[in-house]
Amino acid sequence: MKRTFTLLALACFLMTACNSSNPTTAAEPITVQFTSATLPWLADLYNCAGANVVTTDQLATEFMNLESVDLVIRVGQPDNLTSPAFQIGSETIQVIVNFNNPVNTLTAEQVRGLFTGQLLNWQEINGSNSLVKVWVFSSGEDVQQIFDQTVMGGSPITSTARLAASPGEMAQAIASDVNAVGILTRSWNTGNVSEVYNVANVPVLALTLAEPQDVVQKLIACLQK
Q1: Amino acid 145: pLDDT
Q2: Are strands 193-207 and 85-98 parallel, antiparallel or unpaired?
Q3: 59 is in which domain, residue-wise?
Q4: What three-state secondary structure class fits 19?
């Protein structure tokens, strides 16, 4: 009886020792801010996070704050970047028109003319005799910032431009109006609009306040695969 008790005690000790040397890893919370253009990357984000709890917040770049989150995901590199940045993908920014618009290609000069309001009628560039309807994003959106820097060169957007609240709204607005022209990323182009000008090919970046550690470092590494 004494020997049996001793063996049971030894077994309990070994089990306790094994459990203490391999503690269960607790899931860690991860906070992420992302722009509307990078929504297609969220599926990969959640897959890479595994059991860790991810809290996301969609914001324009002007409202993002690296000091309050673990990660920021955006299209294109911001000016005067000082924090660590990691490319997790690439994106193409396009000027788009309705499928039924006879104009199938534009030059940079023509794009500027349309978006500044200097070209008011599609007939001026071999299109139909119809007024141009311009669609843009808010100035705080990463895609709009890249378009303004790359194409507009400091020229103002026409005051008659309509404002799209999201890439989905932009795509729908152009797809439903033969006289509309707008801006969209290739990931959001589902085939219901036509690309007529390639604005820029840009990286999709994950930004952190400091060099990433532990779970955030692993998350970024997974997103880069």
Answers
A1: 96
A2: antiparallel
A3: 29-90+204-223
A4: helix
